[in-house]
């Protein structure tokens, strides 16, 4: 049985993996697939942030500080951000469905899969321009609802994973950063909501505020996946 108290060992004992076969539905995950799925969790934040940062910088007429990331889906080059949503959402779902992520927190893995699925669906359901304030199209309303799901689940996932890491002596420091990320996300989301009204003094900075929230969660997700990737590398045979 693997010692769960080893520094950086973010996975639970091997008995947890064996429990997956209790109902006879599926066997343990192959080490190669586990590493691949966790690698997807590391790639998702890198891909998502890199694409919207580059597009925000290069897109003519686009103002990153005052416009939402989703507004990159509009216009002739909108397909780039749409594909970004699709790829990032898919990578997160693959990561969430890995047995390694489930061993940390099955509830957290389910919430992460829902977040990834919502990001994926945000691609084809393109947003409306924030300059219109009130969403007027059906796809714009759906995009707004999906966005609400994503931003609601982000701090919830951190809180759930904090519950696991605080019980693992070797992961107390990461538990602190996980809790801090959850609190920062909640504070950021409150400020972001207030900035969405045209009369708000923060309205011109709503894009920047949204990016701070997104970067906070994506940085935590990358760190979380990285810890699991290192754990699978140590526990895999050979």
Plain-language structure description:
The two termini are 17 Å apart. The radius of gyration is 19 Å and the shape is globular. It has one domain. The chain contains eight helices and no strands. Helix 5 packs antiparallel against helix 6 (138-165). It is an all-alpha fold and 238 residues long.
Offer a quick outline of the entry.
The chain has one domain (31-232). Helices cover 66% and strands 0% of the residues. It contains eight helices and no strands.
SSE inventory with pairings:
Elements: H1 14-19, H2 31-58, H3 78-96, H4 99-104, H5 106-122, H6 138-165, H7 172-195, H8 206-235
Which features characterize this protein?
mainly alpha, single chain, disordered N terminus, 0% strand, globular, 238 residues
Domain count, please report it: 1
By DSSP, the count of extended strands is: 0
How are helices and strands ordered from N to C? Answer: HHHHHHHH
Distance between the termini: 17 Å
Number of helices: 8
Shape: globular
Helix content: 55-70%
Strand content: under 5%
Structural class of the secondary elements?
A: mainly alpha
What gyration radius follows from the Cα positions, in whole Å? Answer: 19 Å
Q: Which regions are unreliable across 5 or more consecutive residues at pLDDT < 50?
A: 1-28
Mean pLDDT: 85
Main beta sheet: none
